[in-house]
Amino acid sequence: MADTDDILKRLGAVEATVSDVRARVEGVQATLQSTLPHLATKADLGKLETAMERSLSRLETATEKSLGKLETAMAKAQGANEATIRRLVMWYVGTQFAVVTIIVTLVVTLVKYLP
């Protein structure tokens, strides 16, 4: 009889464990049933990858065009800046010649008319 009681105890423990496992499996099953319809398939991911590659390609093309336009604009601006600097330097040199000419003329005039 002691063996039977021991077996019944063990059987009760196994039944409790199986019941607990059953509840957990049902929870996992419910989660899967509610989640699986929303998961992407390999085909879905392939389509997404293709779309992303196309978008990236368009972005690269647009960026290259924009950089080309920017380089052209910067080259024009640099040319304009160089021309402006050239004109300013020429004006400055011309002005300095005029100032020196005026000073020399004043000095010669002063030397000529002062005793």
Main β-sheet description: none
Mean pLDDT: 91
Number of helices: 2
* Morphology: rod-shaped
The portion of residues assigned to helices is over 70%
Secondary structure layout plus pairing:
Blueprint: H1 2-35, H2 42-113
In short:
This protein has helices at 2-35, 42-113. The protein has 115 residues and is mostly helical. The radius of gyration is 46 Å and the shape is rod-shaped.
Question: What features would you highlight for this structure?
Answer:
115 residues; mainly alpha; rod-shaped
Characterize the structure shown.
The chain is mostly helical. It is 92% helix and 0% strand. The chain contains two helices and no strands. It is rod-shaped. The protein starts with a helix and ends with a helix. The mean pLDDT is 91.
